[in-house]
Design goal:
Structural class: alpha/beta
Number of strands: 10
Largest sheet: 8 strands, mixed
Number of domains: 1
CATH class: Alpha Beta
Strand content: 15-25%
Order of helices and strands: EEEHEHEHEHHHEEHHEHEH
Radius of gyration: 18 Å
Shape: globular
CATH topology: Rossmann fold
CATH architecture: 3-Layer(aba) Sandwich
CATH superfamily: Alpha/Beta hydrolase fold, catalytic domain
């Protein structure tokens, strides 16, 4: 079994330094680097199956975005936003000492990848967007906002696991071992019980969004998407309430004209824990 290394890098926000942890799989001298970035409240461990599959060909780097998992927290939560995350990833890639990388981004991780891929320096060689696009469904955003940042403690791991499964039903069907992994990855035991590992303050800018700010963000994201020129694969959960089929189809006609694959029996977002979801990424990166 391949064992990843846990590393970290110091990044900078206007409020000061913060530490971003990342898992590194494969040969650290391999110039073929794949960066995998998780969704809003998830962690680097979400890519364990994908990374184990691909690390014989790629140096796979899976960061915990600041405020999540093993990473530090921001001193000022207003900077929990895409521009800060993009800046942190530029710092990470500089640490890796490579000219460009391939990118797999789930949800928020895909938005970060879109912004990076839009830059004229061509930092991203190949881009995989996992159930995310420039237009975000308002009802789905409201669903996520209902649970993000709520201070919750659970008396037992089983109670905490049940909660993670409840808020993650859109992930689709998983067996007991997979649900346990999805819970273990985002839970820790502390004083007073079990809790989620992310900084509850990351919800502050998320919940401050207004219809007007969302509309402005979408215009910026479409402009970024239209500027992308690298080969792009778009995965969409067939039952996704965040990425509509209409938006996904539009993404096949604009910008990089993404290759679209719909994954059955899953909503937002595919967890990449099963071969049917990993195989398309593997094939795309090989092509």
């Amino acid at each position: 079994m391949v064992t990843p290394k846990i590393r970290d890098v110091q990044c900078m926000s206007p409020a000061g330094l913060h530490r971003m942890a990342y898992k590194e799989w494969g040969d650290s001298s391999n110039p073929d680097v794949l960066v995998c970035v998780h969704g809003l409240t998830r962690v680097s461990d979400d890519f364990d199956v994908l990374a184990a599959r691909l690390c014989d060909r790629h140096r796979v780097i899976c960061p915990d975005v600041v405020g999540r998992g093993r990473s530090g927290h921001l001193r000022d939560p207003q900077y929990y936003a895409i521009p800060q995350y993009v800046a942190d990833m530029v710092t990470l890639i500089a640490r890796l000492d490579v000219e460009h990388v391939s990118w797999v981004g789930t949800s928020m991780g895909g938005l970060i990848g879109m912004v990076l891929a839009a830059q004229p320096e061509q930092l991203i060689g190949k881009l995989v967007l996992n159930d995310i696009g420039p237009s975000l469904n308002a009802a789905a955003m409201a669903r996520i906002a209902e649970y993000v940042g709520q201070p919750r403690r659970f008396a037992s791991f089983d109670e905490a696991r049940a909660y993670v499964q409840l808020i993650s039903t859109a992930f689709g069907e998983h067996d007991d071992a997979q649900w346990r992994k999805l819970a273990v990855d985002v839970l820790r035991e502390g004083e007073g019980g079990w809790m989620l590992t992310y900084d509850p303050a990351l919800s502050i800018p998320f919940k401050a969004m207004t219809p007007e700010s969302v509309q402005a963000s979408q215009q910026l994201l479409w402009a970024a998407y239209d500027a992308i020129r690298c080969p792009t694969l778009l995965l969409r959960g067939e039952q996704s309430d965040l990425l509509s089929r209409e938006t996904a189809k539009e993404m096949t006609r604009r910008g990089p004209c993404a290759q679209l694959i719909e994954l059955p029996n899953v909503g937002h977002a595919p967890t990449l824990l099963v071969p049917a979801q990993v195989d398309p990424i593997d094939s795309f990166l090989r092509s």
